[in-house]
Amino acid sequence: MLYAAWRILCIYFFHPFYLYTYPIEEPYRGVLAVEWIRGLSLPIWDYAADTYSGGVFIIGSIASFFFRLLGPSAFALKLTSVFLFSIGLAFWHAWLKKYAGARTALYFALLFIFSSPALTRYSLITLGDHAESICFAGAGLYFLFRAMEREGGSKGFSSAIWAGLITGLGVWVTYLHGVAALAMIIFWMISGRRALKDRNFHAFIAALLLGFFPLWISFNRHIGFQGLMILQDPLWMYFHPKLFLHRMIHLHGNALVRLIGSFTLGDMSSFLPGRWVSFLYAGLYALPVGLYALGRRFDPSSSCVQRGQSPSVLKYTFLYLGLMLFITQASNFTSLRYLIPLQPFILILTAVSLSRMERIFPAIQKAVTLSFFFILLIFTALFHFPAMSLRYAGSALKTPGYDYTWISQAPACGDPRHCLETYKKLRGKISPQGLHELQTGIGYTTANFLTLDQLPEQIKEIEHYFDPEFEKAFFYFLGQKILFLEQERLEPSIERTKALMLSPSRTHFMIWGMLGGMGDLDRQGRVETWDSQKVEVPLEYQLFYWQALGKKWMRLELHEVSDFSGFEPHLRQTLDGMPPPYRDSFLRGCGMAYLQEWDAALPFKPNFLIRDMEKLPVSYQEKMFEGIGMAFQKGRFFDLGMKQDWRWERVLEQASEKNREAIFRGIHMARDYFEKEMGEEGEKAP
Description:
The protein is an all-alpha fold. Helices cover about 65% and strands about 0% of the residues.
């Protein structure tokens, strides 16, 4: 109950920036929940998020229950993870209470409830991914240890079956849980119980295969047996023996060092860098372990394992940690999400040490334990509450819990026709907001399927699927792809577009996409010249072209400067070197980039960029704030997963009244262009 209460409190008070760790993928799990309620429009397997994890179906099924109760909000979607992890914690507590003692189980539960920032965020994630494997690990271990007991009898046999089924299902949910399954098998075989002659062991293996393969085969038959592919590459391609030695030499790539740095996401503290937060948590967890190890050195009679409690919790913990660290050391799986399943086992080491210190340090054990949990609560306040907001309390109830954008990434969308068939089946059945997300996602994915050498034929084959709104997204992203494949050379990209002999509106969307991509795709490119004649851009696109240059220039500037003391002279010098008619567009482009960097800094530096922008000359401010408004409106049309309007409210709160007027002016300029003139011949750029 305490766990659920604290996590629900986090969801309710979290600033919207923290609601979704993965802002497009998580709400996509809500799509299946919405579809369950309304009635599936596609075959069930078409809703998969990838080829190598089936957790989306579990998350979607549970979320549909909460959606029926509370509506399709982010709050209801996040209750799914609260429900799963509450059950998972119950199994962890029961396992440790039986095999490591009640005090160890209590300490572990408190450590898990008031966890590190990273574990807190990932225990609220709704992916059906690596974090959720923690729940399957707790349940699997509880039944595994019961099955391994000598006196288990018929209960041991049924426990072995449950352990196998849960573990097999966990491997289907996320392949990384296969490491836990391997650790369980090895642990049983080295435990001295003659596993190969144990019928419980045979039942465990058979149930594990039964829990994994039927679902895996059913899913893979639908996607052409691509289940051993990750991002178009075979699973085994992600393992390289050379990586192991290389990362042993370079500490920043060492798996153990990365584990120490995994206790924070780096953005849930308003006053300390993430690495220092990680060091503080690592030091706090390591302190009881160090004291206990030191005490046992002077009192060897104190055993790590309670007598009569067999098999050993600590032996399995060390086996899993070693196996997992070895695999991550020798593979490309280096992200934080792969290290999260290790954190409960770190907490076990700390909990065991705290509970067993009484025999070694009877005089100070109580003081050490109270001090430890007092510091833990202080850390919780310091490194979690900055992520919360009273002003935005309850925003999870207003934020949508589903987003159709990611459906275009489903493995079933393996070719443009299937993507477009998906669009055709869904477009008449979903809300206008969902339809816009679908158009954006399918348009982006379909455009990226096409090849440059066969563009005319490919467009002709699929154009009967198009409708006017879908065309905008499709040709916009097709223009971006052409620009990217032409190595961001604008002039050849425009010439290739003209050679397609498309209608004026389609040509417009493509060129406009190229100009948008010119500021988005190349974040490190340098603007070497301000002479527009160097690139032959059609006259009607000149203002957009200079806007893209401004966006590109500002991104580079913001990434390279540590403060803005010398920013104004540099901007003035840049403006002096360009044609006067295009300076306003350049400044608007700067404002668009400024907004994106401000968004990335939220909410740990909420006034950083707006405050600095208002120190610039008034003539610069006006056009740059207009650019902010234009960026907001453009995001509503083309940006993937743009649904968090609270960001723009923060901008309006912090800007002066005059600059707020400029923001609204930019919004109206872009809105008029998008809604009234876009797609017509002779468009006029704002």
